[in-house]
């Protein structure tokens, strides 16, 4: 099953109006490389303006609440993101799991709510330094995936898994190609176990200090179908070379 690569930027809590020119520049570069999907997950406050700044380009949010509406101060529903023009959302990022106490069951509910509402979903999993040092990385991440996955999926291309070792996020440390390959193979097997053939169509992204200088090597690892990029997605100068690396022939 052919899987187009997906390169998604996660702007986290960065970006004011003056960053919209970066969205436009990134969208124009993405258009020149039609064989790779590109998205930017911007702060909720910027979604609508980013969509207007780059019509047709995939803009996403960084989290949703699983409920459709209600007394949940500060949260946004999938329908709200769609209403603002978003086409995808991240769920289960480690900064939400750690900073907001989100457990696997909540992440699963968010993923199901996002897909059910018509958003594409990037579901994040990953181990801490302590878990890896204890030799438990594969078991930990596999269990996290099993417990966070939506019960059913429609179009497999609407769901992506981002393997993001927590110790590699924003640290400049990158998992080795052997570590990435081992984990992505395990995740692929779990996806096939969960969804049968459709599990082959779910993209598995790597995330953790991806930048222009390491992107090509990471994209060469089997079962790496793209990247979730934090710091290096904030400027077009840093992000566009990563898009180019993903679009290189010979995939
Ligand atoms: C992320 O937060 O999803 C991420 C991968 O960040 P960075 O690329 O900055 O490590």
Helix-strand layout with pairing:
Blueprint: E1 5-10, H1 20-31, E2 36-41, H2 47-53, E3 58-61, H3 78-84, E4 88-91, H4 94-99, H5 104-117, E5 120-125, H6 129-133, H7 137-148, E6 159-163, H8 177-195, E7 203-207, H9 212-219, E8 226-229, H10 236-247
Parallel strand pairs: 1-2, 1-8, 2-3, 3-4, 4-5, 5-6, 6-7, 7-8
Helix pairs in contact: 1-10, 5-7, 7-8, 9-10
Key traits:
about 250 residues, alpha/beta, TIM Barrel, 8-stranded parallel beta barrel, binds phosphoenolpyruvate
Report on the structure:
- The protein has 251 residues and is α/β, with parallel strands linked by helices.
- It has a single domain, classed as Aldolase class I (TIM Barrel, Alpha-Beta Barrel).
- 41% of the residues lie in helices and 16% in strands.
- It has ten helices and eight strands.
- Strand 3 (58-61), helix 3 (78-84) and strand 4 form a beta-alpha-beta unit.
- The longest helix is centred in the C-terminal third of the chain and has 19 residues, at 177-195.
- It is globular, with a radius of gyration of 17 Å.
- The chain starts with a strand and ends with a helix.
- The structure holds phosphoenolpyruvate.
- The site of phosphoenolpyruvate (PEP) has 13 residues, from strand 8.
- The site of phosphoenolpyruvate has 13 residues, from strand 8.
